[in-house]
Specification:
Strand order of the largest sheet: 3-2-1-4-6-7-9
CATH superfamily: NAD(P)-binding Rossmann-like Domain
Radius of gyration: 18 Å
Helix content: 40-55%
CATH architecture: 3-Layer(aba) Sandwich
CATH class: Alpha Beta
Number of strands: 9
Number of helices: 9
Largest sheet: 7 strands, parallel
Order of helices and strands: EHEHEHEEHEHEEHHEHH
Shape: globular
Strand content: 5-15%
CATH topology: Rossmann fold
Number of domains: 1
Length: 266
């Protein structure tokens, strides 16, 4: 897939994986829409791309307010007349045991990671149906393949994305719209640092696994390569990705090891 002149919308574009993807795509002669909550950070990212105002739109959104997804989509179409690719990357992480996590925090995580994600795709898909072409790419997580202590709601939201998009892919195939699920392992971002705890406060502490993870620029390069391909799914990470087949073939051993690792974190 040639990305030149494609209109590509990236959520969670103000930092981490999303920011790195923006910079990688800026080199592909694309027209970009960059979204996140913090407009000052989006403007910083825009300035770093060196793209002209004709080729980039800063569109602040809050995925928790997903009832506005159609309005956001109309703003993109008003600017560029089409949407070729949606990259659903925006999200929030969690650090807190299930029994100590309030229902309000659980709802917040699901609103952002699942309902906001899905609402945006459902708002964009009709535009792609009219065009008879498009691609929706979703950044999930290996946490969408197995659970870990302290990540119950986060993992649930990522599992839910797999269930929805594996179904949505089949529904959109006849309209020449493809769905790509990309599952990162440990990537060197502040996602754990900014994670929400059980009572809704910010965790404000990063994890060694995250700090030693793949650099965002390397992830973005691999992601863009995958975006150009015809793949339906891709894992991107390092040795931690081995946990997925290990869980599939040796589930009892896998969960015993995860349990021991969880106890070491306490």
């Amino acid at each position: 897939m040639n990305l030149s002149n494609k209109v590509i919308w990236i959520t969670g574009a103000s930092s981490g994986i999303g920011e790195a993807i923006v910079y990688a795509l800026a080199k592909e002669n694309c027209k970009l829409v960059i979204s996140a909550r913090r407009i000052e950070e989006l403007n910083r990212v825009k300035a770093n791309t060196k793209l002209s105002d004709e080729n980039i739109l800063v569109l602040p959104i809050d995925l928790e307010e997903h009832q506005n997804a159609k309005d956001w989509t109309q703003k993109v179409v008003a600017k560029f007349n089409r949407i070729d690719i949606l990259i659903n990357n925006g999200g929030i992480s969690q650090e807190g045991y299930a029994l100590k996590t309030t229902a309000e925090v659980e709802q917040k995580i699901m609103n952002i990671n699942y309902f906001g994600n899905v609402a945006l795709s459902k708002a964009v898909a009709p535009i792609m149906q009219q065009q008879k072409s498009g691609k929706i790419a979703i950044i999930t997580s290996i946490a969408g393949k197995f659970g870990q202590a302290g990540l119950s709601s986060y993992s649930a939201s990522k599992h839910a994305l797999y269930g929805f998009y594996d179904s949505f892919r089949l529904e959109l195939k006849a309209d020449n719209i493809t769905v790509l699920l990309v599952s990162p392992g440990f990537i060197n971002t502040n996602v754990t640092l900014n994670a929400v705890t059980g009572d809704g406060s910010i965790h404000n502490q990063n994890s060694p696994a995250q700090e030693n993870g793949m650099k965002t620029a390397i992830f973005a390069k691999k992601f863009v390569s995958t975006l150009k391909s015809n793949r339906n799914h891709k894992y991107i990470g390092s040795k931690e990705l081995l946990a997925v087949p290990f869980k599939t073939f040796f589930p009892n051993i896998f969960y015993n090891l995860i349990y021991k690792m969880s106890n070491k974190k306490k």
